Amino acid sequence: MTHAGNNPVVVFYVLVICLSLRMASPSQADPVFVDPINDTFGDPIFSQDIAELDSRVTRETVTFSVLFHNSISAPSAVANNSVVGFIDLDIDMDPSTGVVSNQSRFSPEGSSDLGIEYFVDLFTELLNVGQVELVDTSTNLATATVPIEFTENSFSVTIPLALLGNDDGRMNYGAIFGDVRDYSDQATNPGGPVATTIPEPATCSLCAFNLFVLLGRRWRRTEFAAAQLRYPKKCSSATDGPSLVRCRVDLEVLNPYRTL
């Protein structure tokens, strides 16, 4: 009996499905910005020291994640290590459009080479726990609030791309953070694609289902052919459609535990 896994037709189907998944959800890697320890500046009460700045894009959202060398708290905690600041978004990747970034305005190192259309304001979590405002720089007004999640030494902000003018997720971005008295650290992505694109669960599930169906069909054909060999009197004359159906029924009666 020929195993499905050794059949070249099945192998071809498997390769086609894998290639389809790869093309449907391409993986684009933007380097994680790794920031050295103890590179803080300013005169804060508590120095927020960035360790990593990263982001992830799906078809519908972009999530920015910031890891710190130190422990942090949310602004609403009103603690010494409560982190505040901005994430600046240059969605057209053109420093000549938009407005001067918050990073450029407040950093002692000068221009960030970002012309921003939106920014995330961490200060606003003080008044709306678990949410931060997304500000449109063309009006300087908040267009929406988006969720922010904190851990002991990191936070992440998730923004629907629909709130960014249905942007495709390709953008430049920067960040500057500190405490209520002064800023202490900053980071900027190296440019290019904003993040690693994550395959959508629905796409993965659909491809996996199609693969299962193809392998299942091949297995059923192989098992039926094997049954014809095991029961030649029942199936030797089964050449047309109705005869094959009768043969299938007879074989299932002989072996009810086998699905053909």
Summarize the structure in words.
There is one protein chain. 27% of the residues lie in helices and 27% in strands. It has 260 residues and is an alpha+beta fold. It contains 5 helices and 13 strands. It is globular, with a radius of gyration of 29 Å. β2 (50-57) and β3 form a beta hairpin.
Mean pLDDT: 78
Strand content: 25-35%
Q: What name does the CATH topology of the largest domain carry?
A: Immunoglobulin-like
DSSP E strands, number: 13
Amino- and carboxy-terminal Cα gap? 15 Å
Poorly predicted parts: 21-29, 192-200, 249-260
CATH architecture of the largest domain: Sandwich
Domain count: the total is 2
Q: Please, how many helices?
A: 5
- Secondary-structure element order, as H and E? HEEEEEHEEEEEEEEHHH
> What is the CATH C level class of the largest domain, in words?
Mainly Beta
What's the story with the biggest beta sheet? 11 strands, mixed
Helix content: 25-40%
Radius of gyration: 29 Å
Q: Which term fits the overall shape?
A: globular
Helix-strand category: alpha+beta
Q: What's the structural blueprint in terms of helices and strands?
A:
Elements: H1 8-24, E1 33-34, E2 50-57, E3 61-68, E4 84-90, E5 99-100, H2 102-106, E6 115-116, E7 118-121, E8 131-136, E9 141-150, E10 154-160, E11 172-178, E12 183-188, E13 196-197, H3 201-230, H4 232-235, H5 241-254
Helix pairs in contact: 1-3
Short structural description:
This protein is α+β, with helices and mostly antiparallel strands and about 260 residues long. The chain is built from 5 helices and 13 strands. About 25% of the residues lie in helices and about 25% in strands.
